[in-house]
Amino acid sequence: MPVAGFRAMGARDDSDEAYVVGLCNRILGEDASTQHKFDWLLGDPGMGGRCAKLPVDAYWSGHQLVVEYRELQHDQPMPHFDKPDRLTVSGVHRGEQRALYDARRDTEIPAHGLRLVIVRPADLDADGRGRLRRSEEADMAALQKILVRESDEDRVTDTFRTWLLAQGWTPVKPTDRWTDLEAVRGTERLICEVKGSTSEKRIDADIAYGQLLRRMTSQDPRICYVLVVPSASVSAVERVPVHVRELLRIALYEVTDDDKVRRLVE
């Protein structure tokens, strides 16, 4: 039975991708723009130097959300899909290009203020070959959990990333994979640790400072370290004296309950 609310714009109507997007439409209460293309998400230049726009599987503008459904060929070599004897415009075979473009989506989509959710067959009811069994009730429940922000930390991170973009910063792939958020503006760089609401505010504040200290591997004065917290944790992070924070180049930012951002200054 076709899933209500799905507009096929590239994915086959009977594909697993179309099935997943259709379920997401029902959960979100909005029809996705499928195979959507953004002006800023580009592939490598082809003949004549022109860069084609890379599509995303589904985009919900009302939710500022992109969902990518990545089947097995996105995570493991598959000669049938990869065609290792044939090079693409990127100078590599299709499998390597797919990984390259997936990584580009992973970086560029959040960098432009959109939330990116990646769904894989293993997240749903799938067989060993990665084909979905289409257990609609179970799949709906799984997608509901995936699509809903899992924690207040997600809210704080998304809000601060959007604020950075408005201030002229460009979020980039972190140099340390444990860093929550990293951004550049000209020669400046921010390395950010983000915390959400917690019952152990003081302990988590101390942990956050320790995490920033471990990332201070460069003496470059153009790097600033940032601790971002919700309003409920402000008093906990302000226990570290101002002069110590200044010596360590640590700035504090608050994300309020109504998603406003302000810098904490003494």
Question: What report would you give on this structure?
Answer:
The protein is α/β, with parallel strands linked by helices and 266 residues long. The chain has two domains: 16-147, 3-Layer(aba) Sandwich (Endonuclease, Chain A), CATH 3.40.960; 152-264, Trna Endonuclease, Chain: A, domain 1 (3-Layer(aba) Sandwich), CATH 3.40.1350.10. Helices cover 32% and strands 25% of the residues. The protein is built from eight helices and ten strands. The chain has helices at residues 16-28, 79-82, 94-111, 136-147, 152-166, 201-214, 234-237, 242-247, and strands at residues 33-45, 51-60, 65-69, 115-119, 170-172, 181-185, 188-194, 223-230, 250-255, 261-264. Strands 5-6-7-8-9-10 form a six-stranded mixed sheet. Helix 1 packs across helix 4 (136-147). The longest helix has 18 residues, at 94-111.
Produce the secondary structure layout.
Layout (H helix, E strand, L loop, with lengths): L15 H13 L4 E13 L5 E10 L4 E5 L9 H4 L11 H18 L3 E5 L16 H12 L4 H15 L3 E3 L8 E5 L2 E7 L6 H14 L8 E8 L3 H4 L4 H6 L2 E6 L5 E4 L2
Parallel strand pairs: 3-4, 7-8, 8-9
Antiparallel strand pairs: 1-2, 2-3, 5-6, 6-7, 9-10
Helix pairs in contact: 1-4
